[in-house]
From TrEMBL:
Domain Major facilitator superfamily (MFS) profile: residue ranges: 42-458
Membrane-traversing stretches: 43-63, 83-103, 110-129, 149-169, 181-200, 206-228, 261-283, 295-319, 331-349, 355-379, 391-413, 433-453
Annotated compartments: Membrane
Membrane found in the keyword field: yes
Region spans: Disordered: 1-20
Protein name as it appears in the record: Major facilitator superfamily (MFS) profile domain-containing protein
Annotated gene: slc49a3
Gene Ontology CC annotations of this record: membrane
C-alpha cells in the first residue's frame, strides 16, 4: 500500500486463527512463503504411519521366532518357513520403484491407504489359512504364502513414507524427529514379533498368534482409511513443503544420477544397510559355532534393536536443533564400523557373553540411529527431487546389496570337522573369514563416505532464501510465521 499500511492476511474459513500481518499487494505465491502453519492432526497421521509400520513388521517376522512350531502347524519344512520372511525382500526390490513414483505422484494419502488395505488383506488371508483348512493341511501353506506376499507388497508403500510425511506435515525443526519416530516403528515391530510370537505360540498356539496380529491390522486399516483426509495440510509447514514434488519422477531420477554427493550416499549408506541386514540375518548362525545359545543370540538381537531405537531418538532430537546432518552421519558411521570390527573379533571368542552383548548394543546404538538422519540427508543433498524418490533409491540400494552380501558371506564359510561347544546342530561352519569380509566392507564404505561425501543443505538453503527475500522486500514486520491449528 502506498501509505505503508498493512492489513491482516485473512484466516482460513471456519477456523479461528490468529492472523499474521502481510501487505495486501503481496502475490499469492509469496503469501505461501510468508504464511506457514502446522496442524495438530499431523500427529495423528504420524501415529497411523507408526502403527502401520509396526504392524507390517510383525507380519513379516511372525513365524521366524517359532519356526519349528510353524513348520509343524503348516506341515512344511524349515526352508519353506524361511521363505515366509524372505518373500518380503524378494518383493520389495522391484516394487520399490513403483512406490517411489506413487508417493511423489499420487500422494501420501492414497499410498498409505493402499498399504493399509494390503496389510489387512494379508493378515486376514493368513488367519483364514490357519482356521479353514484343518482337514486338508496341503492348502494351508499356499494361502499363508499368499497372505505374506500381500504384506510384502504393502511394505514399500509404508517404509518409504516417513521422509515424505515429515516434509509435508512438519516444520523444519521437527522433521528429523518425525522421520526418526516413523522409521524406528519398523524395528520396534520386529522386536515385538520376537517377544510376542514365542509367548503366544507357546501358550495359545499358532492360530491364536496369527489372530493376534490380524486384529491390529484391521483396526489400523480403518484408522488410515477414515482418518487420513489429505496427502498434505491446507497450508504448508515450510517453504520446501510447497515444492516437495516440484520435479517429475523421471526427471528426478535423472537429476539424482548426476548428483555426485547423492551417488556417494546411495552406495555407501546402502552398504551400511546391507551390513546391518547381514548382521541381523546371520547373528544366530555366527554365535552358535562358539557355544552361545539361541536364547542368548535372541537377547543380542533384542539389544541391537532397543539400543538402536534409543540412539535414533537422541540423534533425531539433536539433529533437529543443530542441523549437523553430515557431521553426525560421518561420526556415527565411523563408530558403527569400529563396532562391526569388534563384533568380528569377540563373536569368535568363547564364554564372552558380556563382551558380545555390549558390542551388539553399541553396533545398534550407532548404526540404527543413522538411518533416519541419512534419509533426511538424502533429501537435503537432492532437493527439489521428491523425498520418496531420493530416500527410496537408497532403500533399494540397501536391499540389493543385502542380497549380494549374504550370498558372498555364505560363500566364504567353511565346514568344521568338529566344534565341541557348538549349539548349531549337525551343520557347523566357520564364519571367521566371512566376518572379516563384512568388517572390511563396512570399513571401506565408511572411509569412502567420510573422505569423499560433502554437500550443501539445499532444502534448508531454499527455506532460508525465501525468508531472506521476504524480509528484504517488506521489512522486519513481515516474517515467517508458524501457527498451531486445532483441526
Amino acid at each position: 500500500m502506498e501509505n505503508g499500511g498493512q492489513v491482516p492476511y485473512p484466516p482460513p474459513p471456519a477456523q479461528a486463527e490468529e492472523p499474521c500481518d502481510v501487505p495486501t499487494q503481496v502475490s499469492g505465491e509469496l503469501k505461501k512463503l510468508l504464511v506457514f502453519k502446522v496442524y495438530k492432526r499431523r500427529w495423528f497421521v504420524l501415529l497411523v504411519l507408526c502403527l502401520l509400520n509396526c504392524s507390517n513388521a510383525t507380519l513379516w517376522l511372525t513365524f521366524a521366532p517359532v519356526a519349528n512350531q510353524s513348520a509343524k502347524f503348516l506341515n512344511v519344512t524349515l526352508d519353506q518357513i524361511n521363505w515366509l520372511s524372505l518373500v518380503y525382500m524378494v518383493v520389495a526390490i522391484p516394487l520399490s520403484f513403483v512406490t517411489t513414483w506413487m508417493l511423489d505422484t499420487l500422494g501420501l494419502r492414497i499410498t498409505l491407504i493402499l498399504g493399509s488395505w494390503l496389510n489387512m488383506a494379508g493378515a486376514l488371508l493368513r488367519f483364514l489359512a490357519g482356521t479353514l483348512y484343518n482337514s486338508n493341511l496341503s492348502h494351508r501353506y499356499p494361502l499363508m504364502m499368499t497372505g505374506q506376499t500381500l504384506g510384502a507388497l504393502a511394505q514399500p508403500l509404508i517404509i518409504f513414507a516417513p521422509t515424505k510425511l515429515a516434509a509435508l506435515w512438519f516444520p523444519d525443526h521437527q522433521r528429523a524427529t518425525a522421520n526418526m519416530i516413523a522409521s524406528m516403528s519398523n524395528p520396534l515391530g520386529l522386536l515385538l514379533a520376537n517377544v510376542i510370537s514365542p509367548l503366544v505360540a507357546e501358550t495359545f498356539g499358532i492360530t491364536s498368534l496369527i489372530l493376534a496380529y490380524a486384529v491390529p491390522a484391521g483396526i489400523i486399516c480403518c484408522l488410515a482409511t477414515l482418518g487420513i483426509r489429505s496427502s498434505a495440510p491446507p497450508t504448508p509447514p515450510s517453504a520446501s513443503a510447497e515444492s516437495s514434488t516440484s520435479e517429475p519422477f523421471v526427471q528426478g531420477i535423472k537429476l539424482l544420477m548426476i548428483n555426485k554427493a547423492y551417488l556417494i550416499l546411495l552406495l555407501c549408506f546402502g552398504a551400511g544397510i546391507a551390513c546391518f541386514t547381514c548382521f541381523s540375518t546371520l547373528l544366530d548362525q555366527i554365535l552358535c559355532v562358539t557355544g552361545y545359545s539361541n536364547d542368548f543370540a535372541g537377547l543380542c538381537g533384542a539389544l541391537f534393536i532397543v539400543f538402536g531405537i534409543v540412539g535414533a531418538a537422541a540423534l533425531g532430537l539433536y539433529v533437529d536443533k543443530t542441523k549437523k546432518f553430515i557431521e553426525v552421519t560421518k561420526i556415527n558411521m565411523s563408530f558403527s564400523a569400529l563396532a562391526c570390527i569388534a563384533f568380528s573379533v569377540v563373536s569368535l571368542l568363547r564364554e564372552q557373553n558380556a563382551a558380545v552383548a555390549a558390542v551388539c548394543s553399541l553396533f545398534g546404538f550407532f548404526g540404527f540411529s543413522i538411518y533416519p538422519v541419512a534419509m533426511e540427508l538424502s533429501v537435503e543433498c537432492s532437493y527439489p527431487v521428491g523425498e520418496a524418490t531420493s530416500a527410496g533409491l537408497i532403500f533399494i540400494s540397501g536391499q540389493i546389496q543385502s542380497v549380494l552380501y549374504i550370498i558372498l558371506l555364505q560363500a566364504f564359510t567353511q565346514p568344521l570337522a568338529e566344534s565341541p561347544l557348538s549349539t548349531c546342530g549337525d551343520s557347523v561352519k566357520s564364519w571367521k573369514v566371512s566376518l572379516m569380509v563384512m568388517a572390511g566392507l563396512c570399513s571401506f564404505f565408511t572411509c569412502c563416505f567420510v573422505i569423499f561425501f560433502n554437500t550443501r543443505y539445499k532444502r534448508l538453503e531454499a527455506e532460508e532464501k525465501a525468508t531472506y527475500r521476504t524480509k528484504k522486500n517488506y521489512g522486519t514486520n513481515v516474517t515467517e510465521h508458524t501457527l498451531s491449528v486445532n483441526t
